[in-house]
Amino acid sequence: MKKGKARGISRPTAERLSEYLLILEQHLFCGKETISSKELADVYGNTPSQVRQDLFQLEKTGRIRHGYNVNTLKTAIRNKLGLENTTNLAIIGCGKLGSAIAEHVPFSSYGMNLVALFDSHKSLIGKKIGGVVVENVADLEKSVRKMKISIATLCVPPSAAQEVVDKLVSAGGVRGILNYTQRRLKVPDSIVVRDRQIVCSFMQLAFFSNQGI
Amino acid sequence: MKKGKARGISRPTAERLSEYLLILEQHLFCGKETISSKELADVYGNTPSQVRQDLFQLEKTGRIRHGYNVNTLKTAIRNKLGLENTTNLAIIGCGKLGSAIAEHVPFSSYGMNLVALFDSHKSLIGKKIGGVVVENVADLEKSVRKMKISIATLCVPPSAAQEVVDKLVSAGGVRGILNYTQRRLKVPDSIVVRDRQIVCSFMQLAFFSNQGI
What we know:
2 copies of one chain form a homodimer.
Chain A (H helix, E strand, L loop, with lengths): L4 E2 L2 E2 H19 L4 E2 L1 H8 L3 H8 L7 E2 L2 E3 H12 L5 E6 L3 H9 L7 E8 L8 E2 L2 E5 L3 H7 L4 E4 L3 H14 L4 E4 L12 E4 L2 H14 L2
Parallel strand pairs in A: 6-7, 6-10, 7-9, 10-11, 11-12
Antiparallel strand pairs in A: 1-2, 3-5, 4-5, 8-9
Helix pairs in contact in A: 1-4, 2-3, 6-7
């Protein structure tokens, strides 16, 4: 995976900004229209100076005397992260995890369109999940090209993971993969893979909570 | 959330070690009994020197001339992360995401016991998922105490999240929470919360893949 900076922000900053965005939305939902760097840091779990350093990299943050205007800050983060662009997305593997993602993740609120679902099970092909019809994974390459899909999520069994990824690569156009399988994937350097092995989150939580860090 | 070191390793090191472990298992599965720091770094996506620095903090790594013995290294990581301890775990919210975790995450292979599931829907209470019977969330506090549950996962709707967490806190004994809801939680400093908002992973992937970082 390549390392680097884009739009002048580093990878960790971009990660924090996406999480700040959800915190700001929660803050607005509670009827609070301003937020200080200390409040944001307390909820996120970092320091006010880190928050200010991150927000300093945005344009028009809505900085006011004792903090920020939440709506203006939200817009600034959305612009920086390019959430007004439209990214076409596919989910491959429509078992419980894939279906949960299709049904519950609010893609359209964050500049993404869920345009395709794939599975190999006859019982799922043709079914509608989260408003999208499940296609046969055998048609993956053709559909990925036709639907101009640029990011894909893998929720297939580990044994099928690399084969599916090879098809995504050969289809062309896919630039990012979110990998929920327990298998590490081989991809060309031009494709970004983010590994999200759920079992690792549990191992880390068990360790941190046992050690109190 | 508190910051710090435990057993002489930092939080990022512990996170990487848990991911190295899955890579080593995959390596063994492919019949490879030794691995070099370069091979491990190539799969993980960091540098050989970072890998060596992380592994240097383990005991008995199985260091051999051109790398490491995979089995010995696996054991060293498991020991460091305390995966031979037994941690009792509960999942709260047994919709598709909660059920997927209950059915597919191999907890017992990593020192954890899934001992309880909770939901508020009558159609789910009493049902067996991943070998465990779903209990009524109204009995949460009593069961958490009885089953000596120390880590919990939240897969409930955002509107129910804080209420469930307050019950977990008042039950006592819970030291870590993995939060899959889109809501940030208020907990005492003694409890570790790890936020895993799936939509953030998608925002980050869309951003990184658009920017090519």
